[in-house]
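Known limitations

Files may contain more than one protein. Parsers should not assume a single record per file. Below, a two-record file is shown to illustrate correct handling: read the sequence, read the token line, then continue until end of file.
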Amino acid sequence: MFYSAGIFHRRSIKEIHALWKRGSTVPILKRLTRFGSMNLLVSSGVSVAYFSSIALLALAAVQPRSPDGQGDQSTYFDSVVLLTMFLLIGRYLESYSKARTADAISSLALLKPAEAYLLTASDEWSGSSVSSSEGLTAVPMTAKGAVAFKIENIPADMLELGDIVRVPHGSSPPADGMMVSGTSGVFDESSLTGESEPVRKETGDKVYVGTINRGDVVHVSVVDISGTTMLDNIMEVVREGQTRRAPMERIADIVTSYFVPVVTLLAISTWIIWLALGESGKLSADVLGNLSGGWPVWSLEFAIAVFVVACPCGIGLAAPTALLVGSGLAAKYGLLARGGGEAFQEASRLDIVVFDKTGTITTGKLQVSDVKYVTNSWNEETILGIIDEMEIVIGNEYWMQENSVQISLELRDLADSWKNEAKSVVFVAAQRDAQWEVLAIFGVADLIRPEASNVISLLIKAGIETWMISGDNEKTALAVAAAVGIPSSNVIAGVLPQEKAQRIQWLQRGRPVLPFTGTEMPSNHFVVGMVGDGINDAPALTSADVGIAIGSGSDVAISSASFILLSADLNGLLNLIDLSKAVIRRIKFNFLWAAIYNIAAIPIAAGVIYPAGRVRLDPVWASLAMALSSVSVISSSLLLKLYKPPKKT
């Protein structure tokens, strides 16, 4: 009673003290109508059973022995013991199940190698080839030739920046680093990005902890030590996201805050009703048997059962457990939920998805596809020769206008033709005799991601509007939009970073006024998701209800987002939306199940079905029912682990 159930008593006392301590600002009415938690319900039920048993034991001690010689069996000490046992078992299963929900994150931690093969310079090398079995290896590190290194096996946590480590075939780099030797390598990055295809790495490319070397032995220079690697950042982001609560979770808080006073009132009312029925003769006296204490004690069993079975543990676990499982699944499929429960809830009801153009719909890898030198006197050699001697201006048409550079009609026509081909146009101008003159014009093409068109098509089929926003010129933006299936009316081009945020807010308001038309439209809040990758997307990502950053993008964009797609593949967006809907559906189901469970169990515990066949819910079985309520909700959440991403067709 006092030791095993002490955890419930201590927490209940703290809750009551915090509510009624001197200086509390909580209004008196609120203290009487919203107080306590599940701990107070459990503590109350156990305490009532225990102290009523003490009273019954004292009462039995002063009463004459029964004529049949049988002792009185009216105490609840066994109920107290079994009740506490079931409650603690339920708490243990709850803790164990919560730990299981983080398996996907824990498995990421297991990907970190415990040891590293450190290469240190060796004075023993004479220039001849040395086999690796002797502990020495020759690595081509400089232009002058190979340098001898000795291999040492050390704990990975002892690595420092700049250390050179050996990564054999089939192993993982012990820290994030740059490849410094070996012609090339092939790494399996599926554990981080969800991409099943191995990625080829060349000297100078970055490799990450948790990825697997599927090629030949490579050597890596450490650039991020333990605690700052990409894998560490992923685990930290997921942990932070799991602590952020969804609006749905506030429902559980509100329900629980009113639950204790309501259940207390129900339990007292139950005791009074059964006591009144017994004392008034409505019930047969033979139901008492040899129970000492009469109708007051007999009625008390109903009240204790109500106290115990009414614990809203299932309601309190409905959202957190599903979100924990959802976060783990997201990490498994290359998604990081920085925004936690609120981000999942918003992503499940997206109305509009806005794409940045460069680096999101396109690959962001620009290539010069066309070039035209304006006059014969300005050729490539001439331009390169005067760059260090003359002030030049490089940029688009708007930047040329800002610097008072005159563009001929012929060049404008050429630029327009390139824009119609989804190419960006870059002008180069130099100042000659106080006059700015265009030297050359370049057409720059940015390849469209191969999956972009299919992803946008599936979003439209799902009833989600797709928009594109870009700082590029309107013709180029329209050409890209047409190529991937975004309507021309849903393209916003030529905007600055801060204007992107304003346009996101405009979409959230339901586009109350169409640009340049003044046409009024209904004003409703639309849930808007923004997908971007650059620093210039950060204001829009922050303003959107759901900011989604491409993992290959800038740190500023990633820190502004609710979700991070570790892979640049836009199919991850479809997985994100579908997983969010699955998580929210599971939360709603958990709430419904827990509510139905409690609504059905409380009347049974109160004795509603007792008159039909003298069937009552003993306090011990009430505690078991309460524990099963929590376990059933947790099991429901764990079923999310069976989730599979939708087919991309």
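...continuing to the second record:
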Amino acid sequence: MATERNPLGEALRALRSRNGWSLADVARMTGISTSALSKAENGRLSLTYDKLAALATGLGVDIATFFEKPPVETRFSGRRSIDRGDATAGTIETSNYVYHYLNTEILNKKMVPLVVEHTARTREEFGDFVRHEGEEFLYVLEGRLQVLTELYEAATLDAGQSVYLDSDMGHAYLNVGDGTCRTLAVVSAPAETINEALEPRNPSFAPRSDAPERDPSEK
């Protein structure tokens, strides 16, 4: 059986090798523990969007670096990316979500598009509110989504409905339907590149003790 690719681990290992960085060096630059970095590099730990952004920011690379090889440079300035939904390199599973990053070959994007499957069903299961710089938009593709924020009453959205919010306001998303809940999400930031705007608010990154190992503060 073929070994499943680990694009994040491959990219992180290549960056460390190219720059002569140890895991301890990367930990100092990103605020992520050496243990967590080692697990991520070896495919034993999933990273949420927030953690990937923190990793990209600390290392000074674009977040798309962790999914695809950079495109060949051309003399043309216009960019285009077609995603036919058949790639698995941009899929990351966490305790509250399954992220499907779209059009990952475009670097230095000012917005990050994703299809998100929401798996948390209770506030207790989701954990603490998530907050990060920028803005985000979610359009419900399937199921029922409950939007929780620290400033507004809870709102429930059905397929075809959407929400737009400031990402630095604490927020959480719950699947409150009978089946799968999926959204199209676009995360944006008011900076030249998305990773410049996503400095981590909480650098702690300790995976849970129960399997599979994941960060307890995952979005």
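Parsers that stop after the first record will miss the second one. For reference, the second record is described as follows. The chain has one domain: 7-69+88-197.
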